[in-house]
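Same chain as my last thread, 605 residues:
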Amino acid sequence: MIEDIQQQQYIFEILWNKATPAQQRIKEIEEGIEHVETVALKNISEIAKRIEKNIESSNEIKIASHPGGLELIYNNFLGSYKNVLDRHRRGEHKGIRYITTIKKDNEGLSTLLLNEGVQIRHTKNLTPLSFCISNKEFLATAEKMEGGKMISSLLVSNEPIYIDHYNSLFEELWDNSIDAMVRINDIKEAVDLADIEVIPRSARCRLLYLDLVKDSKEEVLFIFPTSNAFIRQTKIGATPLAIEAAKERGVKVRILVPYNEEVEVRFRQEVGEELAQRPSYNPTIEIRYTEQTSGTMATILVVDRKASLVMEIRDDSKTTFDEAIGLSTYSNSKAGVLSYVGIFERLWIQTELYEKLKESEKLKDDFVNIAAHELRTPIQPILGLTQILRSRIKDNQQQQLLDTILRNAKRLQRLTQDILDVSRIESKSLDLTKELFNLNEMISNAIEDYNRVIKEHQDTTNLKLEFTGPKEDIFIEADKSRINQVISNLLSNAIKFTKAGTITTAVVPNNNEIIVSVNDTGSGIDSEVLPKLFTKFSTTTTKSKMGTGLGLFISKNIIEAHGGRIWGKNNYSSGKGATFGFSLPFQNQNLTIGVTSEIRRDWWY
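reply #2:
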């Protein structure tokens, strides 16, 4: 008896604490104020009565529910629905609008309610809560209502904030769903029941994305257009979920993504260092690196070759998924999904071919490197011994034969040196050994050497080399042998294309740089060569067959390694020849210059 009294007292205290003071409620009634409350009902009979009351007192009903809701209505509230729909036909009610997922097993119930006058639309992407909004109340449950059973928990509220929020959510779902009859006809005609949906909200896309990966059974394919996309989706858990599916359920996961050090680090962290280094131990998880492309800005997910999700990247600089993603498109259309599978497989094969090509290129480069080194070894004794032999032979005809050997040996020596330089440039190992030297003196010596050679062949050419520049010495800090190589390349090219006339080399200090130019009066630069002047083999790919086409490529990289620029152009003003020039910055240079004359800058651009 005492225990019963205590229990009743306990229940009374709970009810007293949750109750509204009488004076407050009387005031609300007198002033016509609607009492606002949110309650959770747990009693099934009370829930049934509250739903029925909500239906009968409504002047409009909006419902978004999981498929089981159709059977629940048919089993428990069909009479109340018919009464409301009668009122609607008399113009006393705004009617019932219903959003659900229509499948083969519930299309009959959907047809029945349609015939009664309920407006029904189909969508695949319902909210986690099933909810109903009348003019006065908001009702919601998280239960899936399987088998049409009455729900055991119901949230009831007349809070305006709930009603307004779910009203706007309902209208958005309604606008993005399809007419029930279209869906039902597809089911009856056994048409491929494809769902294709454009998802404007990134938050909703994120939930669908994670659900698709989580529910995968056989295969998950990812195509990431940027390394940032991979990193963002690792943060929200998409790739970790896929890797978990691979490890626990044997789901095959393949990832295509542009290479980035952070991508590799994150991948190793997720799959484990040993598996990342030895992927053959775990063939269910594979990653391949692609080239970054500017044309494609969408992440593509394909799950089990049955569903695809394409997520457009609105702003790749954002660090969070919701900020970066724009519109997304979901599809389970067989043709559409398989087209994405085809794209993935082609890219996958291309990465494999690309890796093999890179390996082949490396083997080729290694071979060229070895060959160049091996050629350089015998050239030096050939040159040395031929020169000694020539000095001892007095017969003019034999000397000419030895001159031919010397000339071709020197050409071979230059070629091997150029090949080695190109190899260093492409492997980014072109090292500079800087020293302080007199630029004027170096150029003067180079011109003197070339003039001597020209003088020896005066019978075949009428050519003169000149040097103009400040009388004072110009000391710069640079790699002397490399700068001399550039000067020699420019002079050599000018001599090749100038049969007669003058080649003028000028040095002019200007502001924070020094400009060196080589101007000739030769045939000029061929129009086919001009656009690719400083690329490898630029002269060998056109009708100009003189030289290997490596000298200007090497010169460009030497000058740019010093922080300078190099250029070349035809002399359109004079109509004869071409001018090649380069600049070297004065920054951090030790200089002794007596003249700092101003020059026009347009002549060398």
